[in-house]
């Protein structure tokens, strides 16, 4: 049996292979569906699709960007008709951004493709392996260290 360091190296190698294959699949699908979006625009688009309306600060934090960079992304997505911005009624300084009807439709179509991809991946495993994989993913996600980011 390999020691912990050797296992960690294997985990990194397997993870890189999986990420590369999943990334290629995502890029191929994205190019067909949303080729007009840059990688960063796609990240912002999917963050809004999965989380719902966010303030600019929340979007920036979720993308690990400055608020000014998140604002530029929102500008570009708004120009493309995928997001809309609104000001908070309670505090006019707060700007919220969310998907338009067209943006939500596009996100839902892509999310269905992701579910189909995940189903295909799970079908390669026995049922007990699927349960084990999901349990391990949850456990690993719960164990990720949290690193505090500096605020602007």
How would you characterize the overall build of this protein?
The protein is mainly α. It has one domain (14-143): Winged helix-like DNA-binding domain superfamily/Winged helix DNA-binding domain (Arc Repressor Mutant, subunit A), CATH 1.10.10. Helices cover 69% and strands 8% of the residues. The protein is built from 6 helices and 3 strands, in the order H-H-E-H-H-E-E-H-H. It has a 3-stranded antiparallel β-sheet. Strand 2 (83-87) and strand 3 form a beta hairpin. Helix 2 packs across helix 4 (67-79). The radius of gyration is 19 Å and the shape is globular. The mean pLDDT is 88.
Key words describing this protein structure:
152 residues; mainly alpha; Arc Repressor Mutant, subunit A; three-stranded antiparallel β-sheet; 3 strands; 69% helix; 8% strand
Short description:
This protein has six helices and three strands.
Tell the overall outline.
Answer: globular
- Report strand order across the widest sheet: 1-3-2
Low-confidence stretches: none
CATH level-four homologous superfamily name:
Winged helix-like DNA-binding domain superfamily/Winged helix DNA-binding domain
- Whole-number average pLDDT? 88
* Order of helical and strand elements: HHEHHEEHH
**CATH class, anyone?**
Mainly Alpha
Helical content class: 55-70%
């Amino acid at each position: 049996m390999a020691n912990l360091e050797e296992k960690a190296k294997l985990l990194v190698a397997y993870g890189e292979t999986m990420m590369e294959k999943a990334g290629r699949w995502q890029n191929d699908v994205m190019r067909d569906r949303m080729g007009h979006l840059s990688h960063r625009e796609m990240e912002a688009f999917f963050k809004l699709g999965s989380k719902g309306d966010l303030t600019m600060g929340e979007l920036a934090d979720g993308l690990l960007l400055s608020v000014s960079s998140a604002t530029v992304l929102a500008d570009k997505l708004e120009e493309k008709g995928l997001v809309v911005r609104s000001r908070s009624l309670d505090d006019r300084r707060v700007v919220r951004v969310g998907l338009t009807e067209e943006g939500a439709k596009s996100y839902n179509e892509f999310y269905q493709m992701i579910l189909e991809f995940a189903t295909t991946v799970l079908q390669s495993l026995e049922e007990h392996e699927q349960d084990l994989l999901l349990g391990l993913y949850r456990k690993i996600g719960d164990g990720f260290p949290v690193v505090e980011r500096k605020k602007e």
